[in-house]
Amino acid sequence: MLEFTDINKSLPNGQNMGGLTQEIYFGFHVDVLTWPTAPVAPATLAAAAMLTGELIMKPGKKLFKMYITDDTGEFLIEPVGELDGKSFVTHLTVFHPGLKDTLFGFINAAKNDNLVFVVQDSDGQKYLMGDKLRPAIYAGSPDGFGTGKETAARKGISMEFTYKTPNLYIYPGNIPLTEALPG
Amino acid sequence: MWIKYFNFIKLRRGRVIVPIHGEIDFSSDDIPIEICKELYEKGFPYLELTELGKNELYGIAKKPTLTKQQTQLKRKKLSMN
């Protein structure tokens, strides 16, 4: 049975910087072999927010990293649903500069496919977008996608990805950027 | 050199983002042993101890392997008892 506890100010080393780091990590949902598990009957508030285990990719698969322009990455949590049906939609918005072939290729491949993301905030806390049942998906480009009008404009692509989740969790595990081996 | 003490398992040797330390490239031989030890002790799933690592880092001595002759002698002694 979950016990409530006091929720005090908790800013280790006084840190509470906003925003995301300049890299996000992504892969195809189908390439994940095992997912971290959500807590079952947690005893404490902290335990109720912590995933257990590792994101393990299928043999030969890995996560990839994408550079994003500083101060453009945001992980936003939107509570949704009616009374007795509340859940969350998490939104990842980022901006990647330039209109190069790899980025076009990524959008071509990702726009209608199921994805997984791991994002890291400025304190190093990680959030997983995707679980065994639900992927993260491309939702659009809220801050533009193109050359811009003026020469001083920023050419590139903004991207938004969303993930629907019944609860909010922190991912304390590792991010494998190297191919998984069989077995 | 950390690879004397640890095997990198489950992934091809390469980059992993780990808590606190960030990105570590395990294809490099120059990772401080203290970091590997810390990760291993926190349950990092991609490292396992080698026999030398067990012995030198944790003082776990390997059981001596018996020669064929010694094994036969041991069996004989046991059967006589």
List keywords for this structure.
heterodimer; A: 183 residues; mainly beta; 5-stranded antiparallel beta sheet; 4-stranded antiparallel beta sheet; 1 helix; 5% helix; B: 81 residues; 3 helices
Overall tally of structural domains of chain A = 1
Shape, principal axes of CA atoms of chain B: elongated
Q: In oligomeric terms, what are we looking at?
A: heterodimer
Outline type of chain A: globular
Radius of gyration of chain B: 19 Å
Strand content of chain B: 15-25%
Distance between the termini of chain B: 48 Å
User: What is the H/E order of chain B?
Assistant: EEEHEHH
Specify Rg of chain A, calculated over alpha carbons: 18 Å
Question: What topology, given as strand order, has the largest sheet of chain B?
Answer: 1-4
Number of strands of chain A: 12
Gap between N and C termini of chain A, in Å? Answer: 37 Å
Low-confidence stretches of chain A: none
Spans of chain B of 5+ residues with little confidence (pLDDT < 50)?
none
Please give the share of residues in helix of chain A: under 10%
Helix content of chain B: 25-40%
- The tally of helices of chain B reads 3
Q: What would you call the structural class of chain B?
A: alpha+beta
